[in-house]
Amino acid sequence: MNKATIFIIDDDQQVRAALSLLMESVGWEVKLFSTATSFLEQFDSDIPGCIISDIRMPMMSGLDLQMKLKEYSMVPPILMITGHGDVAMAVRAIQAGALDFIEKPFNNQHLLDRVHKAIEIDNGNRETAIRVLEANEKYNRLTDKEKEVFEWIIKGALSKQIAEKVFVTQSAVEARRSKIMEKMDADNISDLMKMAMTMNMINV
Amino acid sequence: MNKFKILLSVLLFSLSLTSAAKNISIAVLAFSGEEYARTSWQPTIDYLNAHILKHRFKLIPVEPNKIQYLEQLVQQQKVDFIITQPVTFVEFQVKHGATSILTLVDESKSSQFGSVIFARSDSDIINLPQIRDRSIAGANPKGLGGWLIGYNELKQHNVDVVNQSKVSFLGVQDNIVNGVLNGSVDVGIVRTGVLERLSDSGRIDLTKLRVLNQKKVKDFPYLLSTALYPEWAFVKASHTSNLIAKQVASTLLLMSPGSKEAVARGYWEWVTPVDYQPIHELMKKLRVGVYKDFGKISFLQYVKENLTLSAMFFIVLIVLIMTGLRVLKLNNKLKVVNYFIEQQNNMILDSVSEGIYGVDLSGRCTFINQALTDIMGWEKKDMLGKLQHEILHHTHADGTPHPSHQCPVYETFMDGKARFINKDTFWKKDGDSIFVEYSTTPIKDKLGSIVGSVVVFKDITQQIEHQQLQKQYEQDLEHVGRLNTMGEIVTGIAHELNQPLTVISTTAFAGSKLIESNQYSASKFLAIFSTLSKQAEHAASVIKHMRKMSNKDQSDYSLIDINVRIKGVITLLQSFIKDNNIRLMLDLDQSLPLVFVQAVQIDQVALNLCKNAIDAMDMSSSNKVLGITTKYLNEAIEVSVIDTGSGIDPSIADHLFDPFSTLKKNGMGMGLSISRSIIERHYGNLYLEQSAPGMTIFKFTLPIQKNHE
C-alpha cells in the first residue's frame, strides 16, 4: 500500500513552499504542482492522501480540476484554498464534493486537522473499496442457485420458507446455505449480512 | 430749260418769303393806357413797315401792371423789341439779356430827363428836409421821373419818406400837379417837362407852384430838382437777330428829327444808345425792381449760384451746429456733474459699498467713507490725520510685520503709478483681519504733481473662503475618486496582502512544528526566517501603497521616477491581472528624467487607467494584454495604457471625461474626469488616443519643465 501523500496545487511558489514546509513538519509526504494541468497529467488514483488546491488559478481553476477528477473512481479528498471574498466559489466547491475550504491566511492547526481528517477519510474510502472488491469476488464464486438462496438469506428468510420459494427440499437449502457460508468466507449470518451491505445489496 | 428756271425762281421766292419775311412784334410800355400808346406809337411802327418791306412790324401796347405778361412774351420769343423807359429796360437787360439799340430824344431835343419836386408856392416848405413829415405824391413806385429820381434826391437830403404812410401814387402825372395845387398833398414829384406842358396848355399857373431844390443844367430847358438820367430806350430782345436789329436801328436813325411820326408820340428823334449805367446805380441805391434785394445777400440766389460750395457749407454748418450742441450739452452735463460732485461728494463716497480713503504724502489719512467704517470698524476720529499703514496694514495675514516702505499705497505716490492688489490683509478695529482687494491711485493737483493717493478696497474674505472651500471640494472629490478606485480593487489588494500573510503564518507555524518534532536544521531555519522577513516586507509595501492611495491630503510635490510609480500601481493590480488571465507587457524607457509631481495623484491616474483597461477586457475570452509604455517625447514624459478589450462605444467616447459617465455597472464615473483634472493641473494632457475592438490606447503626458513650480 502506498504511503499517504499531500498533493499541493498553487500557482504561488511562496504559498506552495510554505504549505510544503508545514506538511513536512508533521511528517507527511508532499507533492507540489504549480498548475492543475500538471497535477492531472501525473495523477495516480492508487496513491492515497489529500489534495490541497488553490481555488483561483490561471488556466485551470480549482473548480475545473474538481470536475475533471469526477472521471476517476478513487480520488483523494480535496481541500480548497480560498482567498478573502471567494465565498461563492467555496460553496460551489463544497457542493461539488470538496471536503472543505481553507481560507487564507490559514489557521494552520485547523488546516493540519483537516488534512488528517481527509487522510482518514481517504483511508476509509480505500478500505471500503477493497472490501467491496473482495465481497464481490466471493459472491461471484457462488452458483446461480446459491445466489438465489443468498438473496433470500439476506432478506431474513428461514430455510423452510426458502425451500418453499425455490421448490427444493429444506435439506437441500441447508446444504446450499453451508456452501454459501464456506464460499463467502463467513463465520455467521452477521458476516454475510455485512458483506451484502458492502455490496450495496441491502438498503439500510 | 426755260420752264425750269421760272419754276426755280418761284420756289426760291416763296422760300425767302416763308423764311425771312417775319412778323416783328414791338412792345411798348403804355404808361398812359393802351389806347394812348397805340395811337401815339403806331405812326413810328408804320414808318418801319414803310421802310423795311421785308418784315411786317406790329405794335403791342403793354400797361406797366402787365409787365410779367411782357416777360412771358419775351421768353416765348413772341416779342422782338421793346420801347420802354429806362427802369424797365434795365430789368430786361439784367433778367433777359436785352440790349438797347437806340435812345429817344424828346421834343425838347434832350435825351435826358429828371424830376421836379414841388410844393404850392404859398406852402411853408422851402427846402427838401422840410418835407420829412409832409404828405407827398408820385406817379408810381417804379416811375422814374414821376418818383424814383425825385425820391433819390430826397434820400440824398436825408429825407426818407418811403416808410411813411404819407406817400401816395396817383398814376397820371397831371393828378399830382392838381393834388398839390388843390392842397390834398403837400409835395409832388413829376417828370421834367410835365409842368411846362401843363402851363403851356394853360391848365395850370406855374406861379402857384414852388420848385424845390431847383437845379440849372446847361441846355436843359425844363424846371429841374434832380440829376439827369437817360431817356427811353429802344430795346432788342436777346433772341432777336442782329440783322433785323441793325435794319430797325438804321431805319429809325435815318428818320428826320421832328418828323410827324415822332411828334405823334411827342419825341424828337432816335439817337445811338446812351449809357444807362446811372439808371443801374439809381435802382441799386433805391433797391428797385431787379435790384430790390441789392446789398442784401439773397440766400436762395446764393445757393443756386454756388450749389457745391453751399452743400459743403451746409454740411459744415450742420456738423458745427451738432458739435456745438454736443459741446453745449456736455458742458451742461459737466456743470451738473461738477456741481453734483462738489455738493454730493461725501454722499457718493458714503453710498458706495467699497471702502474708500485718501492718503496725503506723509501717509496720513485725509478722508474716509462710510463703507470703510462699516467694513473695518474704524471711524473718522480713528483714522483722519493718522498713518493709515499703522492702522490698517501693519501686519501680514501670517502675523509677520508689514513694513511701511513696502506698502503699495505709499509706493503709488512715490512713483505715480496706480496699482491693483488682488489679495492683501487689512486689520479691523476689533483686531480681526479681513482679506481685501484694492486699487490705489495717485491724486494729482491742477499742476499735475502728486499730492497723495486714494485707496478703494473691497472685502473679499468670503470670496477667498469660497475659493478655499471650492479647492477643498475638489480635493475631497479626488479623494472620493481614489477611494472608489480603491473599493473596486480592495478584493485584489486583500488577496495581494493575503499571499504574504499566508506564507508568513504557515511558514512560522511549520517552523514551530519542526522544533516540536526535533527534526530541524540550521539551514532550514535560515530559509524559514528569510522567507518570513521577505514576505513581511512585501506585505508592508502593499499596505504602504494602499495607505498612500487612500490618504486624503496628497498635494505634496516630489521628484519621482514614473516607472517606479507604475510598478507600484501594478502591484496593487497584480491579482486582477492574474485572475483574469491577462498578459502584462511593460515597455518602460529606463532613461526617463524625474518629474516633479503630486506623486499619489499621478499613481491614481495610472491606477485608474490600468483598472479601466483590465475591466474593458472582462468580456474578452482570449488574448488579453495590458500594455504600459513610458517614453520621453517633446520635453514631456508620455505614458500609454493599452488594452485589447472591446473598445469604447463611440456614443460615449465624446463624454468619456465628463463626470458621472461610466461604462461599468458599479462605477461612479468619476475616474477619468478626476484623472484629467489631475493631469491638467500638472500642465499635461490626458486623452483617448485610439479606441477600436482589440486595441484601446489612453495616453497622458507630464511636462518636464513646467511642473517645477
Describe this structure in words.
The complex is a heterodimer of chains A (204) and B (709). Chain A is an alpha/beta fold. Chain A folds into two domains: 5-128, Response regulator (Rossmann fold, 3-Layer(aba) Sandwich), CATH 3.40.50; 142-198, Orthogonal Bundle (Arc Repressor Mutant, subunit A). Helices cover 55% and strands 12% of the residues of chain A. Chain A is built from nine helices and five strands, in the order βαβαβαβαβααααα. In chain A, strand 1, helix 1 (13-25) and strand 2 (29-33) form a beta-alpha-beta unit. Chain B folds into five domains: 23-109 and 236-291, Periplasmic binding protein-like II (D-Maltodextrin-Binding Protein, domain 2, 3-Layer(aba) Sandwich), CATH 3.40.190; 112-230, D-Maltodextrin-Binding Protein, domain 2 (3-Layer(aba) Sandwich), CATH 3.40.190; 297-343; 352-459, Beta-Lactamase; 467-703, Heat Shock Protein 90, CATH 3.30.565. Chain B is 46% helix and 21% strand. Chain B contains 22 helices and 25 strands. In chain B, strand 16 (419-427) and strand 17 (433-444) form a beta hairpin. Chain B starts with a helix and ends in a 6-residue tail after the last strand. Mean pLDDT of chain B is 82; it is low at 7-19. Classes of the chains: A alpha/beta (204), B alpha+beta (709). Chains A and B meet through helix 1 and helix 5 of A and helix 17 and helix 18 of B.
